[in-house]
Design brief:
115 residues; alpha+beta; 2,3-Dihydroxybiphenyl 1,2-Dioxygenase, domain 1; four-stranded mixed sheet; two-stranded antiparallel ribbon; 2 helices; 29% strand
């Protein structure tokens, strides 16, 4: 569906720690890292990128939906996100989600580098 996604963050170190924790239950790892960016994805295939927002420029709101193999992976993702400093915005239960082969989704909001 997409080749890659990039988020601009204000604190790269904090964001890398957060996404390392929450993406691990989904099978993603830190594939690439330098002073201004980091890439996550399957080993050797970064698809989710973080880059430092230029000074004085705000980061933008992004809605990002991630796929998981099963409900247990979603629960591990959710727990890791909360443990890493994420905030729980809501739990969504919808029959429409079943069209995407999932019974439910848990949502984490607010990228941590701006907290």
């Amino acid at each position: 569906m997409f080749d890659h996604v990039q988020l601009r963050v204000t604190n790269l170190d904090r964001s890398v720690r957060f996404y390392t924790a929450v993406l691990a239950p989904l099978g993603a790892v830190l594939c690439s890292r330098d002073d201004s960016s980091a890439g996550f994805g399957p080993p050797g295939e970064p698809r989710f990128w973080l880059s430092i927002a230029p000074k004085g420029e705000a980061t933008a709101y992004v809605h990002l939906a991630l796929a998981a193999n099963d409900e247990k992976a979603v629960a591990r993702f959710h727990a890791a996100g909360l443990d890493a400093g994420g905030r729980d915005h809501q739990t969504i239960i919808s029959p429409l989600i079943r069209l995407c082969a999932m019974d439910w989704v848990r949502c984490l909001g607010n990228e941590p580098s701006d907290w």
